[in-house]
Amino acid sequence: MSISAGVIGLGSMGMGAAVSLLRAGIPTQGLDLREEARAAFADAGGTLAPDAAALGRESDVVLIYVVNAAQTREVLFGDAGAVPAARPGTVFVICVTMEPAEAADICGRLEQAGMMAIDAPVSGGAAKAMEGEISMMASGSETAFQHAAPALEAISATVFRLGERSGAGARMKVINQMLAGVHIAAMAEAMVLAASQGMDLDEVHRVIQSCAGNSWMFANRGAHVVEGDYTPRSAVDIFVKDLGIVTRTAGASGAPAPLSHTALELFRQTSAAGLGRRDDSAVALYLARQAGVKLPGDGEQGT
């Protein structure tokens, strides 16, 4: 089946999806507010859309990779939004981390407008996104999945089908982000403790990956600490947002989440210290500064 696609939001994950679509031979338009993102997508062979309406009008499948639910509503239903201009039956794939109730509401509005919706938050990081190997936690109708299949196959290694009811993907992403945020915080504590003991961080990172204390986040984000590379693949402020979603969801359910609250406070403090736009592994920088420990790549205090 031949389709055209559009990607709104060309950040690290959205750019990876857009490039993966192009690599699969799917004509793809992209939209982002940032000039550098637009230029990078054009250099990759993509077509730039002037606004969300134009992108929606010309795409069979529209993937949304903006920051939050408010931005999602704006690009879909706001002035020059994609939905009023889209053809009936267009599939909108919502890849944004948001509260489950927000995801269900947005998908419901899309269906009321005559569109098809897939609630499909993603995981895997920027490198896997660029390779077309992310994981998707997705819910939606069988018809929507069939129509979007070429796009989903192009951008993902695994699509976890979680039923037809919207919000199921968002609920699964809450669990993922709970674990991811806590594991990043644990990685940061471990690496700072190791540094305070005068241990070789490269050796710590290598050894622990073969031991029971390892996690995906320790392996991935611990490498950033060892290399002193805090280029934002996923920023500290993203986890301020995401762990906020986690703790609110837990609170609404009456489920205790003490580790999530503690991790959220660490991310908030790291952001307040001026590190909010650095890679989320920069929570280790914040802790190291509290301990008077110097980590690789640590420049001026507060930056």
UniProtKB/TrEMBL annotation:
Stretches assigned to the 3-hydroxyisobutyrate dehydrogenase-like NAD-binding domain: 167-285
EC number: 1.1.1.411
GO biological process: organic acid catabolic process
SUPFAM superfamilies xref list: 6-phosphogluconate dehydrogenase C-terminal domain-like, NAD(P)-binding Rossmann-fold domains
NAD among keywords: yes
Keyword Oxidoreductase belongs to the record: yes
EC supergroup of this enzyme: oxidoreductase
Catalyzed reactions per annotation: L-threonate + NAD(+) = 2-dehydro-L-erythronate + NADH + H(+)
Keywords linked to the UniProt accession: Carbohydrate metabolism, NAD, NADP, Oxidoreductase
Transmembrane spans: none
Database matches in PROSITE patterns: 3_HYDROXYISOBUT_DH (PS00895)
Active site per the UniProt annotation: K173
Source species, domain of life: Bacteria
Limits of the 6-phosphogluconate dehydrogenase NADP-binding domain: 6-163
PANTHER family xrefs: 3-HYDROXYISOBUTYRATE DEHYDROGENASE-LIKE 1, MITOCHONDRIAL-RELATED, L-THREONATE DEHYDROGENASE
Family: Belongs to the HIBADH-related family. L-threonate dehydrogenase subfamily.
Function field: Catalyzes oxidation of L-threonate to 2-oxo-tetronate. Can use either NAD(+) or NADP(+) as cosubstrate, with a preference for NAD(+).
Name recorded for this polypeptide: L-threonate dehydrogenase
Organism: Paracoccus alkanivorans
Origin organism lineage: Bacteria, Pseudomonadati, Pseudomonadota, Alphaproteobacteria, Rhodobacterales
